[in-house]
Amino acid sequence: MKLEYLKKIMPFVIAILAMQSTYSQSLETQIDSVLTTVFKASEEPGAVFLVAKDGEPIYRKAFGQANIELDVKMNPENVFQIGSMTKQFTAMAIVMLEEQGKLNVNDAISNYIPDYPNGSNITIHHLLTHTSGIKDFTKMKTIMTIAKIDQTPKELVDFFKDEPVDFKPGKQFSYNNSGYVVLGYIIEIVSDKTYEDFIEQNIFEKLGMNNSRYASDRKIVKHRAYGYHNKGAFTNKMQVSLSIPYASGSLMSTVDDMLKWQEAINTNSLITEVSKKKVYTDYTLNNGEQINYGYGWHLKDIDGISTREHGGSIFGFKSMGVYVPGLDIYVVGFSNCDCHSPTKATRDIASIVINANLKN
């Protein structure tokens, strides 16, 4: 009886497996076509991309070279500086500390930095949402005077805090690295740990993100991808102190670790569902205008499907991650030349996977 039943269902099993194989091959071909258009030359700096569905990788490939001087090919395990994708971790750390009762996002920053100009009118929420109006230090002409000099968080905050504000808190949305530097400093004040130690101990170690760390150009980093510029010819990336991007952009990671990060968010491993909703709220300005930014993530859409996104750019590197909560699709791409942005490719790949899943 069992044998007859198996004989009857076997054709259907084979058909389903064949369909799944065709689906996978079709997706791989389409994704390959997107990436080989951007990352064309095998002897140049390249990229690593990962695509996951329901928490499982369905595409994971490396392109180009991790080190063009030594002729070392890129591989999916390479470690990249992720630039402003760091802001996701900084925002999460703030919300974790709020859950511990050590701060409130509606607190004025003067509660923690008493001498901060106009600090009684600027809240942690303003910093998280880029609506504080404080001057973005990366746009200041004097930035190069400190770019290669190690700064303490206080020294870095002091560098820009007395600059004239761009607007009153809550009046506008203006992407702002200074705000996330201040958040990093507040994390240190509240937790009594360095920003590096707090992120390492409370996020990376907890989630098993063993290849993620605060960036360093001096320490040995296994599987490091080296960063490059291209202004007519490839050059090694400009050397700056990594105390400068700090909590706004100084972390390193791999695509595999970033999938662990996304899964931890999905399963509420770090914060509660209630707090997570706060992170992914479309916030508004004082006049009620929506800004499409939560805490550390842009809240957008691709083909009408809601997404959570953020990119990063730092000397020699660019990064981009897109999560589609309605379909549990995650796409992340890292490039080791700031001449090649993965942003469009990442969004194009997300579109391909979204539409493939909507058809099935």
Describe the structure in brief.
By secondary structure, the protein is α+β, with helices and mostly antiparallel strands. It is built from ten helices and 13 strands.
Describe what you observe in this structure.
By secondary structure, the protein is of the alpha+beta class. It has 10 helices and 13 strands. The protein has a single domain (39-359), classed as DD-peptidase/beta-lactamase superfamily (Beta-lactamase, 3-Layer(aba) Sandwich).
Secondary structure: number of strands? 13
CATH architecture: 3-Layer(aba) Sandwich
Structural domain tally: 1
- Helical residues, percent: 25-40%
Tell me the strand order in the biggest sheet. 2-1-13-12-11-10
According to CATH, the fold-level topology is Beta-lactamase
Provide the CATH superfamily: DD-peptidase/beta-lactamase superfamily
Q: Strand content of the residues, in percent?
A: 15-25%
The shape is globular
Number of helical stretches of at least 4 residues: 10
Mean pLDDT: 93
Domain Beta-lactamase-related: 42-339
Keywords: Hydrolase, Membrane
InterPro entries: AmpC-like, Beta-lactam-related, Beta-lactam/transpept-like
EC number: 3.1.1.103
Keywords:
18% strand; alpha+beta; three-stranded antiparallel sheet; globular; Beta-lactamase; 10 helices; 360 residues
Secondary structure layout plus pairing:
Elements: H1 2-38, E1 47-53, E2 56-63, E3 65-67, E4 72-73, E5 80-81, H2 86-99, H3 124-128, H4 153-160, H5 177-191, H6 195-207, E6 213-214, E7 228-230, E8 234-236, H7 246-249, E9 251-253, H8 255-266, H9 273-279, E10 298-302, E11 305-314, E12 317-324, E13 329-335, H10 343-359
Antiparallel strand pairs: 1-2, 1-13, 3-4, 5-9, 6-9, 7-8, 10-11, 11-12, 12-13
InterPro entries: AmpC-like, Beta-lactam-related, Beta-lactam/transpept-like
Organism: Maribacter flavus
Subcellular location: Membrane
